[in-house]
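Q: what sequence does this backbone want?
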């Protein structure tokens, strides 16, 4: 089968949507399919290409945040199927038009809603109301990362009109690369962490497009905890980083907080291995939280917010804990409870690893994706 994947973000920009596209394309190519990824060229870094996959980095005419305008997408041709990763402002419309002109069916993965702040919120609301439904209606299947999130997202009314076209395809993880037993001492040494220190890890982009990941919220919770024996390491970069560094200084915790900057995805396992607890205090529109299954795959307990999508990944009390969103005292209490109990952390890590192997390993997920493709093409 000849398959085109279209995504707004892709390595060297490390974010969940691009990483999912990367692994889906690679796994499809390994199964003998001809796969091409269409994305925007970035002015920085050399992005990895999945094994056996052609990555076509198109030059954007202009870019607004993570939305590149790629006229080259109108040239999509000679494919049996197009897989669009949404949201992709500008790109989604191009895919819909190209698919209609050349009669190529397409499926759409709804990764998360568009939610911004200030004027961006108004623009996103207008786009979601006026433009997005046109793109969604033309898709042959809607793939959702969790049915829990799909039931509460902005497109839920549309999903209810065509329920048989909604298919749950969760995000996955490379369980061979993200695994227990990796040496994390080099990471602790690099950031000069005391040998006896407990380490809380946050992984996520620190830019406006990912403000909902809750890095600032975690900093405030960490400061409120006030534990001199616990350190916080934030992996990720973006335009919010200077404000976060200033916040750490204002809170008086800059001595116990480290900013790692961008870490390529394949280099993340030692960071998980170095940690004692992985915390992702994200808010909607978070729909899944790939960081959570990566941490579980490495045998680490997780702490996240009890929101749609995320609560389908974390089994509260078994492989991690869920805190009430917006209740910082609850987050602090649960963070401290896990840090104080190494045996519980170890047990949660073991259960998390077992769950990931059963549900979220890519070889278990991609066959279902192929079934969807075959239904559509057939």
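A:
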């Amino acid at each position: 089968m000849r398959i085109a994947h279209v995504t707004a973000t892709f390595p060297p920009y490390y974010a969940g949507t691009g990483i999912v596209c990367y692994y889906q394309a690679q796994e499809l190519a390994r199964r003998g399919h001809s796969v091409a990824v269409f994305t925007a060229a970035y002015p920085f870094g050399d992005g990895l290409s999945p094994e056996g996959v052609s990555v076509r980095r198109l030059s954007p005419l202009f870019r607004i945040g993570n939305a590149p305008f790629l006229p080259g997408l109108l040239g999509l041709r000679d494919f049996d199927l197009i897989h669009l990763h949404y949201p992709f402002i500008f790109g989604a419309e191009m895919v819909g038009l190209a698919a209609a002109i050349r009669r190529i069916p397409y499926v759409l993965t709804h990764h998360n809603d568009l939610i911004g702040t200030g004027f961006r919120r108004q623009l996103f609301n207008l786009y979601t109301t006026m433009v997005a439904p046109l793109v969604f209606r033309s898709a042959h299947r809607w793939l959702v990362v969790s049915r829990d999130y799909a039931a509460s997202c902005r497109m839920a009314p549309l999903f209810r009109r065509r329920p048989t076209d909604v298919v749950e395809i969760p995000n996955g993880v490379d369980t061979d690369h993200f695994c227990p037993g990796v040496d994390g001492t080099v990471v602790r040494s690099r950031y000069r962490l005391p040998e006896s220190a407990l380490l809380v890890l946050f992984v996520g982009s620190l830019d406006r497009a990912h403000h909902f990941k809750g890095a600032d919220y975690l900093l405030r919770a960490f400061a409120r905890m006030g534990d001199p024996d616990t350190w916080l390491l934030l992996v990720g970069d973006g335009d919010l980083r200077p404000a976060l560094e200033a916040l750490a200084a204002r809170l008086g915790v800059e001595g116990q907080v480290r900013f790692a900057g961008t870490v390529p995805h394949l280099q993340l396992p030692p960071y998980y291995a170095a940690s004692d607890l992985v915390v992702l205090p994200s808010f909607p529109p978070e729909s899944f939280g790939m960081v959570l299954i990566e941490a579980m795959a490495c045998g680490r307990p997780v702490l996240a917010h009890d929101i749609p999508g995320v609560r389908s990944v974390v089994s509260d009390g078994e492989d991690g804990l869920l805190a009430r969103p917006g209740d910082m005292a609850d987050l602090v209490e649960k963070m401290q409870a896990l840090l104080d109990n190494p045996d519980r952390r170890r047990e949660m890590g073991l259960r998390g690893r077992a769950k990931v192997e059963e549900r979220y390993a890519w070889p278990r997920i991609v066959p279902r994706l192929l079934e969807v493709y075959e239904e559509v093409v057939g």
